[in-house]
Amino acid sequence: MNFILQMSLRELRSSWKRMLFFFLCISIGVASIVALRSAINNIGQAVTGEARQVLTADIQIDSERPWKEEIRTKIEAIANSPVVEAKCETIEASTMLRPVKKDGASTIELKGIEPPFPLVGDFKLVDGGNFSYQLLSDNGAVVSQTLLDKLDLKIGDKVRLGEAVFEIRAAFEQEPGGGGNFRLGPRVFIDRSSVTGTGLTGFGNRARRKIYLRTREGEMESVMQRLQNEIKGNYVTIRSYKDSQESLNEQFTRAENFLSLTGFIILVLGGIGVSNVTRVFIEQKKKTIAVLKCIGGKGNKIITVYLTQVLSLGLAGSLFGLLLAAIIMFFVKLYFADNLPPTTSYNLRTSAIIQGLGIGLLVSLIFSALPLLRIKLIKPSILLRNESDPSTPRFG
Description:
The chain is built from 10 helices and 10 strands. It is α+β, with helices and mostly antiparallel strands. A 6-stranded mixed beta barrel has the order 2-3-8-5-7-6. Helix 2 (20-49) crosses helix 9. The longest helix has 44 residues, at 241-284. The radius of gyration is 33 Å and the shape is elongated.
């Protein structure tokens, strides 16, 4: 065992420049796997932990059709029960927004709201002020800052939504539930009672009506069960923030698996480089191996020497890959923290570290195995042959 370790260390000291590419291939591959998996895990945990803020309530009931009177009556009866703390309604629709005095247009996501929306979360206006429903009175609108930048608009400008004209009263930087769903365009908020005047709720329009409920702590499941029993099968969708958590978890799991596969492909490509480096390295060490065999070294023991060297480099490369992954996470925090949930962690995940180290060592072993097995084919007689012509003896 001492012979194997001493020989491995000697070969590493004498050949470290040749094996540097081997080291870097493993490092980059492991770094990509650990960083990608840690990032998506951390973001997923932060987002699913804020699922209640994303839904802006405990329970959401929505329909693409106008509420039937009997359905509304049942919902109102449940909403007025002591276990429900607050209720509000919204109407959402995708439409076009056009400035009244300027050219241009933009697809937007219109949302008509009423107090006390949002039941969970709050608005963050660009000017730092507090959102007030007075901003929406008399056809007022609160719009995304992105929309102002896109159409070169400013506070006080008037815009056309469907058949009605609205005045931009404020711009928001962050909205309740923002980022929870895919959108066709920036968000625009108006009063729910003003939506009818736009003509977007008439026949043929795909306006979506939603009712939000906030329940007492520990009562959400019972309210959900009652809603499902009383209005199930009426083209109405009922979900809680826990359903959103499960949905988000599934989405992030798929994203994590895809990105892990991407990192694994990078590592496999590095493994091809590892194989080539090992093959060239063994080719250059043919005479050394032949000398070892001349003095009694057995093929298996010599293979073990070089295998120990390869695995040592693989482990060192994997550990350096962890350092690179930590540096990547630092830059993610430095440049993207403002766009990520505030509770996002930027540490490496233990599961990602274990996976990265394991795959790094496995790739080192698998892609170097075939070149290392060529050691058995090296004969001591090559010391007596001319390098330029293996068939010619060195002395004749």
